[in-house]
Write a structure and sequence with these properties.
209 residues; Rossmann fold; 12 strands
């Protein structure tokens, strides 16, 4: 079973529907025991960094996420769910993120002719052997909706990049943590393949137990 974390964020149902299309049992939940017994956990997210972190903390799901990571359960952050894995964001100065990964979340720079938020399809440059992109050739197009972007501190954790006004670290992988700035559940066949790869992967931490 795949747990989709329920902290009153938007876009949760579309993730559930994409997983069900792939034939997977998915459950939107905030129950700690149910989450920790799941085979996979997904943190979706749209909206503002500060509000989302408050809802996570008020629900106690921030502590559950730390337990999920410690247990070695494969974990996927999507869009704002990627950004909250980091320490802070320019969108909400003074608000602490989960701090599971190192890097900065910055506002996309203004450029003539470019709209912010960035809404639309962009191609990715994918790192060789990136787990989420196995079986995906070339420079796949995926769907973005965001005004802020990740610059990871460790480029070895970056699985894919794109360019929109600036270089954007669009996907990261570290141990059992995986995350995408784009929306795989809205990215047609490529997105479904990414979700399928997440479903099939095993955690390095679980393998070592």
């Amino acid at each position: 079973m795949i747990a989709i974390l329920d902290y009153d964020a938007g876009n949760i149902k579309s993730v559930e529907k994409a997983l069900e299309y792939l034939g997977e049992e998915a459950r939107i939940t905030k129950d700690k025991d149910q989450i920790l017994e799941s085979e996979r956990v997904i943190l979706p997210g749209v909206g503002s960094f500060g509000d989302a972190m408050k809802r996570l903390r008020d629900s106690g799901l921030d502590r559950v996420i730390y337990d999920v990571i410690d247990k070695g359960i494969p974990f996927l952050g999507i869009c704002l769910g990627l950004q909250m894995l980091y320490e802070s964001s320019d969108e909400a100065p003074g608000v602490m993120g989960l701090g599971l990964l190192k890097g900065t979340i910055n506002r996309i720079p203004e450029r003539p002719g470019l709209k912010i938020p960035h809404m639309g399809w962009n191609s990715l440059d994918v790192r060789e052997n990136a787990a989420l992109f196995r079986g995906i050739e070339g420079n796949p197009y995926v769907y973005f909706v965001h005004s802020y972007y990740l610059k990871a501190a460790d480029e070895n954790e970056v699985a894919a990049t794109t360019f929109y006004s600036t270089l954007i670290h669009a996907s990261v992988e570290k141990d059992n943590i995986y995350a995408c700035q784009f929306h795989p559940e809205k990215s047609s066949r490529v997105g479904l393949k990414i979700l399928e790869n997440f479903i099939r992967l095993s955690s390095p931490l679980q393998e070592g137990c």
